[in-house]
Design goal:
122 residues; alpha+beta
């Protein structure tokens, strides 16, 4: 497969995360792409719980650039979707749980412990 643009990779991760949340019973609303703020809003079937989610998508298991910290921290959860074109893997945590190194990146080994951490979204 030829290399896809970053926007296509982002969309693949966003919609894979949306699918996974939907089959777990959440109503999922994607926001406008490439704008400040959450990528997804989710809410429970009874409408009593609502969360903001940032989605980061990668073609392989690699380091993450969280972007501007104020945008990162405004979310309730972060979903990192790696290997979006082959065998997607999901990592889920709260923004403050991810370790940002001195270069401003989240190393891949620091988010690996959050693999399939769906139980955090209650």
């Amino acid at each position: 497969m030829s290399e896809n643009p970053k926007q296509v990779t982002g969309n693949a991760g966003l919609f894979y995360a949306s699918y996974q949340l939907s089959i777990r019973g959440w109503n999922v609303l994607p926001t406008s792409r490439n704008s400040k703020g959450p990528d997804l809003f989710i809410y429970s079937q009874d409408g009593k719980k609502m969360y903001k989610i940032q989605v980061k998508a990668l073609t392989k298991h690699n380091h993450i650039n969280p972007g501007k910290m104020d945008s990162w921290l405004m979310n309730d959860f972060v979903i990192i979707c790696t290997n979006v074109y082959s065998n997607p893997e999901i990592y889920i945590g709260k923004p403050k749980q991810f370790t940002v190194n001195k270069h401003g990146w989240i190393p891949k080994d620091s988010y690996s412990k959050f693999k399939d951490n769906w139980k955090i979204i209650k």
